[in-house]
C-alpha cells in the first residue's frame, strides 16, 4: 500500500471515530435504505381516571391518615362518653330536609348510631348526633324525588333511616333549615367512593344497610324500646325531599360547602 493510500484510509478511520464519539445520534435519512429509523415521541394526554383522582385529592378525607385519625378520635369519644363498642365506621353524605349536602362519618356501635360531623382539615370532631338503635323502626332505599315545581333537584339513590314513625315534623321544623327535631336522616354515597378500593368499601350503602339492620335487630332483642315493636322494616320506595326554591342548597351543593375541601386561596 502506498503512502498516499495509507493516509487516505487513516483519515477515513479518524472521521468515523469522531462521528461515533461526538455524542450525537446518527441522523436518519428517510430517503436512504441504510440505518434504522428513529421512533418519534408523542405527548399523550392523561386518561380520565387520572383527572378524576386529581379532583378527589381536593377532599381532605382522602389525605393519608385523615380517615384513620377520625376513626381513632371517635373510638375514644365512644368509649369515654358511653362505654360503647364501635362495630364499624362509614363515610357518607347526609342530605337534610332542605337538600343541603354534608359530609358525615357514621358509626355503628352496639347500642347507637352516631352521625358525626368531623373536620378533616383540623382533624377534630365537631358534633355527634346519637340515635338509639332500638328506636330505629324502618329504613327506605330508593331514588330521590322532589315536588313537580321544585327548582333544585338531585339525581341518584339514597337511604333514609326513621327512628320515630309516630312523630311527624312540625310545619315550623320543615321550614327551618337548622331544625334538629326531624325524626329521620337521609344519606347518599360520598363523592370519593370510587377514588380507591378502601373508600369504595366504607362508602358502600348496601353493605352499610345490611350491617345497620343486623345491629338494630340485635339491639332490639337485648334492649327493646318501650312502646315500640321489635324488628326493622326495609322498604324500596322513592325518597321525597320537599323543597321548592332551594337557593341555599343550590349554592352550597355546587360548591361542596358541606365538605372539608381544598379551595385554593379562597375558603368558605
Task: Explain what you see.
Helix content is 30%, strand content 23%. The protein has 7 helices and 9 strands. It has helices at 3-21, 48-56, 66-82, 171-174, 197-202, 205-222, 247-254; strands at 86-95, 101-109, 112-119, 124-132, 138-145, 157-162, 184-189, 233-236, 239-240. Strands 1, 2, 3, 4, 5, 6, 7, 8 and 9 form a 9-stranded mixed beta sheet that branches. A hairpin with a 4-residue loop joins strand 3 (112-119) and strand 4 (124-132). The termini are far apart. The relative contact order is 0.16.
Please summarize what this structure is.
The protein has 268 residues and is α+β, with helices and mostly antiparallel strands. It is 30% helix and 23% strand.
What's the overall geometry? globular
Structural class: alpha+beta
Radius of gyration: 31 Å
Classify the helix fraction into a percent range: 25-40%
> Per DSSP, what share of the residues sits in E-state strands of 2 or more residues?
15-25%
Pick out the low-confidence regions: 1-48
Mean pLDDT comes to 81
Give me the number of helical elements.
7
Biggest pleated sheet: 9 strands, mixed
Number of strands: 9
The N- to C-terminal Cα distance equals: 89 Å
Give the SSE string.
HHHEEEEEEHEHHEEH
